[in-house]
Structures are given as C-alpha cells and as structure tokens.
Automatic annotation (TrEMBL):
Domain Reverse transcriptase Ty1/copia-type per the UniProt entry, residue ranges: 3-145
Designated name of the protein: Reverse transcriptase Ty1/copia-type domain-containing protein
Pfam family, one: RVT_2
Source domain of life: Eukaryota
C-alpha cells in the first residue's frame, strides 16, 4: 500500500496503521471468517466437526442450519422463525443480499418439490462437454437395466478379476 500523495507528515519509510482489512489482501478471507465465526457462535450456533463450513443450532424440537462457502450461504431447517431471526441478526453485522430460495449453489441445480429435493449437475456436465469440445457428440445407451438397484450382495463374484 502506498501513502496518498497528499500525505506529507512523517518520513517516506513510515507505514499506515490499518484499522481493518483491505479488500484483496491475503489476510482478508481469514479476517472475514473470524468475524463471521464469532458472530454465528454468539447467536448460539455450533460449528460442525466434520464440515467446518456447517453451523447448526438445535433446540428440543427444532433445528436451523447454515452452510457457508466463501461469502455465499444457505440457511435451512424446520424452524422458520429461527431462520428469520438468524437472517435479521446477520443483517445487523454484515451487508447481506438475499436471493430467495436456492436454485443454484456451487454449480449444483436445486429444484424443490412437495415430496423432496432434486439436485442436478447437468449444467456442470454441459460446460465440461463444451470445454473438451464434445457438446455435439452422439448419445449411446448404456447396457444396463433401468432402475437397477445394486447392492453389496447382488450378483456373482468374479473368479479372477484381473482378467476383466
């Protein structure tokens, strides 16, 4: 960082004292996560031991979950009042932009239905085919039964798997 040209006090070898991180510095993501982490823990959430980007808050009958990826987050759970309270609390500490119900997250298309959720990576596959210039390739059927459920005990073991 260079001093502003209008700054004339001091000697040229003096540096500026930063009161917060500047955007683009190596320390910026770490400082942002530290602030987010302390804020979310103060709201009663616990960080998952298996996925450090997952935070949960459970009561006797309700649960709120927050999944964080860089600066994108998904809030979900069975406590709609808790989710609204979480959003309001995060608005006081951060400049949030609410995008409504999730439709894409990390390249995964999300569609919600009354009986479940469908996750699809079709756009990722299309982009990959375009990258390797296979977008106009011909489809070939797979020689496998439709709706086949494979299990650990299904089928016969190969006598010598090195020949196949």
């Amino acid at each position: 960082m260079e001093r502003p040209p209008s700054y004339t006090r001091g000697t040229p070898d003096q540096v500026c004292l930063l009161h917060r991180c500047l955007y683009g510095l190596k320390q910026d993501p770490h400082a942002w996560f530290d602030k987010f982490h302390s804020t979310i823990l103060a709201l009663g959430f616990q960080q998952s031991l298996n996925d450090l980007s997952l935070f949960t808050r459970c009561t006797a009958s309700r649960m709120v979950m927050l999944l964080l990826y860089v600066d994108d987050m998904i809030e979900t759970g069975d406590d709609s009042e808790g989710i609204q309270a979480l959003t309001a609390a995060l608005h006081t500490s951060f400049n949030l932009k609410e995008l409504g119900h999730v439709s894409y997250f990390l390249g995964i298309k999300v569609r919600q239905f009354p009986n479940g959720i469908l996750l699809s990576q079709s756009k990722y596959i299309d982009d990959l085919l375009e990258t390797v210039q296979f977008e106009d390739c011909h489809l070939v059927s797979t020689p496998m039964e439709l709706h086949l459920k494979l299990g650990r005990e299904a089928g016969e073991l190969l006598t010598d798997s090195s020949k196949h």
